[in-house]
Write a structure and sequence with these properties.
By secondary structure, the chain is an alpha/beta fold. The chain folds into two domains: 132 residues, ATPase, nucleotide binding domain (Nucleotidyltransferase, domain 5, 2-Layer Sandwich), CATH 3.30.420.40; 167 residues, ATPase, nucleotide binding domain (Nucleotidyltransferase, domain 5), CATH 3.30.420. It has a five-stranded mixed beta sheet, sandwiched between helices. Helix 2 runs parallel beside helix 3, helix 4 crosses helix 11 and helix 5 runs parallel beside helix 7. The longest helix is centred in the last third of the chain and has 27 residues. The protein starts with a strand and ends in an 18-residue tail after the last helix. The structure holds 5'-O-[(R)-(carboxyoxy)(hydroxy)phosphoryl]adenosine and zinc ion. 5'-O-[(R)-(carboxyoxy)(hydroxy)phosphoryl]adenosine binds next to helix 5 and helix 6. Zinc ion binds next to helix 4.
């Protein structure tokens, strides 16, 4: 069979990305234009600025993705684009660009769900990985435990009831004055702290629910820091970062492993920006290992937003017959099911 080459386009948040992937597994190029330096002066993503930056970058990023892959538009079999969830103005840049390309080139257009994309990054990183498996998707906007039944269908087994895990990392980093995005900064600082210095709360869900809640631990960190501040006491930022990270990763690991056990999965895959957290990777690997479950995760560059994951998910959608037409629109709060 001829190789199927997919051009993926991602613009749901603050990364303008394009990539070419062969057969859903071979990364031929991966171009990411990050806007982090622009947004960090505001302490978070400013949607209007994000949209404008995407417009400026999108064509350049696509040209570079083709060039680095050593291909032209003619070699591409289909164009895959993130159509949700995400910031509407940001998504629209990718969606309109993909529609224009598909129309002009007379190539199929494939609409891709951003979270499914995150999961599919694992197929590029692990060539032998096949569904079914259990997956934790933890990013700045989402925290889901899903069961990957096949390459395109997923069952949601748990999700956050309030903040996403990455959002909690970003907010705690802001309280500690570490800057944006907070996840990698907490990860680094926590390495120097004691994870048992402060006992932050772990939420126990009723009725065996595998859902998460991270707003309580975030508030506990805020209160802890304020109380010490009011008393004029010095506090050790590394200890707080490590203790917070310990509480969040405890919940992520215990629920994901419980989900895998309920399904009889022998593999857990991690996905999303928070999947690059070093403590999460280690804890999940250790805890799941004791249950005879393997843990896989992509390299950090394929955990945070990228278009390789969109091209990979686009390939599996393409071969299962998914096609979008010129009516495709951005769907900011697109559900997974
Ligand atoms: O997947 P992603 O790039 O964007 C969304 O779809 O939201 O995830 C970004 C999130 C941010 O909240 C960021 O702080 C978090 O992932 N993150 C991390 C780490 N690297 C990125 N959180 C914890 N530890 C990390 N090393
Ligand atoms: Zn994402």
């Amino acid at each position: 069979m001829e190789d199927v080459l997919i051009l993926g386009i991602e613009s749901s948040c603050d990364e303008t990305a394009a990539a070419v992937v062969g057969n859903g597994r071979e990364m031929l190029s991966n171009v990411i234009n990050s806007q982090i330096d622009i947004h960090k002066q505001y302490g978070g993503v400013v949607p209007e600025i994000a949209s404008r930056c995407h417009i400026e970058a999108v064509n350049v990023v696509i040209d570079e993705a083709l060039e680095r892959a050593g291909v032209t538009f003619n070699d591409i079999d289909a164009i895959a684009v993130t159509y949700g969830p995400g910031l509407v103005g940001a998504l629209l840049v990718g969606v309109s660009t993909a529609k224009a390309l598909a129309y002009a080139l007379k190539k199929p257009l494939i609409n891709v769900h951003h979270i499914k994309g995150h999961i599919c990054a694992n197929y590029v990183a692990h060539k032998d990985l096949k569904p079914p498996f259990t997956c934790l998707v933890a990013s700045g906007g989402h925290s889901h435990i899903v069961y990957a039944e096949n390459y395109t269908d997923y069952e949601i087994m748990g999700m956050t009831r309030d903040d996403a895990a990455g959002e909690a990392f970003d907010k705690v980093a802001r309280i500690l004055g570490l800057g944006y995005p907070g996840g990698p900064k907490i990860d680094r600082l926590a390495g120097e702290g004691n994870p048992r210095a402060v006992e932050f709360p772990r939420v126990k869900m009723a009725n065996n629910s595998l859902d998460f809640s991270f707003s309580g631990v975030k508030t506990a960190v805020i209160n802890h820091v304020h109380k010490l501040g009011q008393r004029g006491e010095e506090y050790n930022k590394a200890d707080i970062a490590a203790s917070f990270q310990n509480a969040v990763t405890d919940a992520l690991c215990s629920h994901t492993i419980e989900a895998a056990k309920r399904k009889g999965s022998k593999t857990i895959a991690l996905a999303g920006g928070v999947a690059s957290n070093s403590a999460l990777r280690k804890k999940m690997t250790d805890m799941a290992g004791r249950e005879g479950i393997d843990v896989l995760y992509p390299p950090p560059v394929l955990c945070t937003d990228n278009a390789v994951m969109i091209a990979a998910a686009g390939y599996f959608e393409y071969i299962s017959g998914t096609r979008a037409d010129m009516r495709l629109n951005a769907v900011p709060s697109l559900p997974l099911e």
